[in-house]
Amino acid sequence: MTADVALKNPQQLYLDWERAHWASQEIDLGRDREDWARLESSERDLLYWVLSSLMVAEERISTQFCGLVLAQDDEEEGSFLSTQLVDEVRHMQFYARFRNEVTADPEAIAGHVSRAREVLVQAHDRLRREPQNREAKVDFVTIYHMVLEGTLGITASHFLLDFLNENEHLPGFVDGYSRIAADEQRHIAYGSWFLREAVADDEAMAEVVRSRILGLLPAVAESVSPPSEGAWDVLGIESGALGEFGLDALTRRLNLIGVALQPPA
Description:
By secondary structure, the chain is mainly alpha-helical. The protein has one domain (10-257): Ribonucleotide Reductase, subunit A (Orthogonal Bundle), CATH 1.10.620.20. Helices cover 77% and strands 0% of the residues. The chain has helices at 10-19, 30-38, 41-63, 66-70, 75-103, 106-114, 119-129, 134-167, 171-201, 204-223, 230-235, 241-257. The chain is globular, with a radius of gyration of 18 Å. The protein starts with 9 loop residues before the first helix and ends in an 8-residue tail after the last helix.
């Protein structure tokens, strides 16, 4: 376990946010339009899949996050959580701009977004109704910060940015997505801090975190499986590498907050 590692608190993370501001409309997508037209169909299919998944996550969190802001324990936490809500809307604006200005095929992604149904919605509804319920808050943070961003988001950004950088594709998307990935590292840091505090205050919260993650692992495995076998060749990685990377990232984060995937004997 590494639960004694120092973690930034919400006030420190808020100050980090002030120093890292960026604007979605200022990213230069000019060359991306030319690059998109030259991509192989297999590369475009992979990027459609990734962009669809990213927009699903951002659409959900940008509309299902106010409950966590209202569940703040103090002013400092509320200040940071407000910046996270702003970040999520900014991310959605960037993805929508890339979709509309570069891929020129909004319907290919909009259909995927409209079909998305996630446990995050139910967890948010519970937290909105019971903002003082510690278990409800722990559950929501586990789903979003540990699974959506701390596992799926990190995995997508790691492999996709490597692929695009190595092939010198879509520099505007790389710029924007790299900024988004930096934002998400800040969000994950908050989630790690909050969950570690919650588990330290009440050991029963460790089981809340563990049960939720174990219940979501099958969905996580499905989410990091590309849409076709050929996608592995496009990425230049072995089958199963995405899942292995994601599980490793999740395990490291759980160690930070003092929770093991398997309960102690």
